[in-house]
Specification:
Length: about 240
Amino acid sequence: MKEIEKIKDISKIYFFDISSLSSLIEIQKKRLSKYSLYKSKKSIKLKTRKKLPIIQNRKTVRNFRKISMKKDIFFDIIINSFCKRFLNSKITKPYSLPKKTYPAAGGLNMLDFIIYVNNISGIGKGYYLLDPYEKKLIKLDLNLSLKKIFKFTENVNLENSCFTVLFISDLKAGIIKYGPRAYRYCLIEAGHAAQNLLLCSSYFKFSGVCLGAFEQIGEKSKNFKPIEYGVAIGK
């Protein structure tokens, strides 16, 4: 099976514990063969009327080319991925109600977005905090390299990426409403927001890579809350 052969190519995959490789291969064999148990069952063959380019053309890029993204495209991606829309509501009339572009538990703000700008025309390199209500980027005085943050991420070269988004958790309001489940909801929310980012980038013919292995800067800095996720965008 091609999937098993990919797992055996350990030079391209980082394992937390290399001794678990054989167990992983066996688990994957069982996972891929489980559908054969249902061969005698009645099934419906799926047929698509239209393949959506924004989905079909989405791909992961691990080594980015040195290409600069236009500022207007960058703004469009960020605004459509994360920024609030103000919609009229029967409940809040005559006031408009801020709505997120991604699903969020209870409409609470459990995520902040810190963006490292690397190759965006007209914007200086560095870290920016996104204000999703005013649609503004606030320059941060952070002397951190992406290499240090993502030092556990192998086979990914972020040097030529256009920008990287760090998903930062802020659970205060969530814990009051949901208790310990707030953290689970925060992670789900981060996944939805990241998918927005990837699809918006795909629309403009840019690609990305999701980053889950990082140095937890938040544990060492009072001014930096915990990172939950990272996504780098480029070509």
